[in-house]
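Each record in this resource describes a single protein on a pair of labelled lines. An example record follows, reproduced without changes.
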Amino acid sequence: MILSPELVHFILTVTFGFLIGLEIRSYREHFRPDKPKDFFGTARTYTFVAILGYIFYRLDPERLILYTTLLVGLTLLYAIFYYRKVQENRHSILLYLVMLSVYSFGPLTERFPIWMSALLFVLTVFLLNAQSMIQRFSTDFNTYEFETLGKMVLLSAVILPILPDRNVIPYIPLSPFKIWLAVVVISGISYGGYLAQKYFFPNRGYFLTGIIGGTYSSTATTVVLARKARAMGENPLIDASIIAATSMMYLRLIVVALIFNHTVGMRLILPFILLAALGFLFAVFYIRRGRRAQQRPDFVDRNPLELRTAFLFAFLFVLMMVITEYVTRHYGSGGLKALSFLVGFTDIDPFVLSILTGKYAVSLHEIVSAIIIAAGSNNLLKAAYALWFGGRVTWRSALWISVLGIVTIGYGLVI
């Protein structure tokens, strides 16, 4: 037996309305057990609202006179209820918004695919249950970071589309549009890791700090963890976290390469995954020997999406492109390998992006080799930081990061 579409839509409308009514009851018992008068209607009320919304829409789907009349009537009823709430210094209109959502299920099921009404139902239930999480998030969220994110969105949505997508800068084999697009992508990856570390894993341990921190700045994460190790004393768990941050750098570079140069990214997948696995193997060894720390670990409390940082990255990106063009033209592959080794002792992202997106007088094979060498020498820099900021207590992590760096550089030279 095949049910008619109208019957299916009606059943979905009634079901969603009834379930949201039950959710409102659960919300009242969980969040407002001492204020039962704050609520407008029961599960039956919301079910009838859904039914009437569907019927009145079906009776006049073109002009929507009946549908609009009932909506005005429900709004007036809630206005009377809300007037009494305001007199008692209560101002929430959440229940009215939920009622509007329930009332809209009828037209949604009729005029749009089923996923639209299902998504509205899921979002409504989620928001009703997320009060504590949203309050905690709004309390903990740094308003300066939100302002910075807003500026970045504005620059990405307004400036990026109007930038010319043709080569207009002398000696730069890339258009302004692609230069800024690269900045936006890298900043987005870094910012995603930063938000995950700071807001979505507030009770993280040291090892998780190393993993998530490595997704946006393995160098900065190494410095923070090394300082913590010096303050706490010898703890193999922090060594494992430092090594994990470096291992995540390899995976991050794979993602960046696949986004900007799929061919190069495919060639980096196997060696970088093997190197990351080797690093995690070292980390697991020290995890088994580590001890739990009583306090929560510090993290890299530096917003990677600050506009100043983004513009500096764009400048370094262009500068590295000019330098790489000069070196490859005059010194060939040998000069590129030397440059990649030296660049590893700085921030390697601008160099990696410049070599992924530019057009140089070198082969694809040499580009892959240069990225690998830069990643290896960057490991040597992090090993030096671990010793400098952590002292003798982080010699193990510094040793194994150095081993990873030497193996990486050696592989980059022989491939």
